[in-house]
Each structure stands twice: as C-alpha cells, then as structure tokens.
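>> received
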Amino acid sequence: MIKKESVFKIGRFNKPHGVKGEISFTFTDDIFDRVECDYWVCLLDGIFVPFFIEEYRFRSDTTALVKLEGVDTAEKARMFTHVDVYFPKEYVDEEEDLESIPTWNYFVGFRVTDVDHGELGEIVAVDDSTINILFVIEKDGEEWLLPAHEEFILCVDKKKHRLTVKVPDGLI
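>> returned
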C-alpha cells in the first residue's frame, strides 16, 4: 500500500486530449523528466494508485500530454480528469541537503522543529499562490504559515521526515 508520506505532489491531470487516451497534465515540478521512474501515483477515491507511463510530451513549460499504460480511449482517460498526480520519494536522491530536494511539495508530511520554540507541527500543504512560498503547518487544530526559505532550514532528515529550522524572532 502506498502511503502519503512516500510520495509528493507534482501536478494534476486535466481533461482527455484526443481519442487515443492521452491526458492533459499540468505540473508544478518536472522531476518526472529528470529522474528515471516508470510510474506515477494518482489519488483515486482517497487511495494512492500507481500507473505506468507509456509516454509523455511537453506542450509548454507547465503542461504535458501523458499516455498511461492501459488507457487507450478518451472514455478511459476521462476517469483521470482533475486527479492529483504524485511522484514516489524513493526515486529522489537520499542525500541530506536541500539541493537534492526537487520541490517544496516534497516536505508535505514532514514534522517541523524550531531550535528555539520546539515542535511546530506537521507540514500539511505548500502555498505557492504568491511569490513567497509558504509551508502550511498544522498543530493541535491550528494552522501556521511559515516561509519556505532555505536560510531558515538548518537540517533535513529525509528518513525521519523531519525539518529543523531557526525561525527569525517575531514570526512565531
């Protein structure tokens, strides 16, 4: 069974393209083009399901047309409309540095600890709707917004899914 902490979101399928089963895909990270992996993971009815990729081709710097194995008609492709797409973390380099992190979405599911304030909570989302990317951190039913900035991150522990940060005074 694929668990949420073993994948990170890279985009979303849109609508079918043509009659041969291709699907329009809007992506936030092109990790699939930089790292060798035969499959992607889709969130269908609350369950993470792997699908093998036959081929893809870029339409722009944020969209591609994707052909999934076994999806060969527009009707079959229609079931993937507005489905979130994830990439398995196991294919990402295991080095403990920020340069090996493909996208800020990689950190969803990580626990955050500040060196001065202790446990801050778990990153539940990444808000990239503005130029300043924010981690959405949840603890005890409360949400906190923390700037996703390399200068604040002291340590990344990929195995334990933990971030150690030093947040400037006044942000907490």
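>> Helices lie at 31-34, 74-78.
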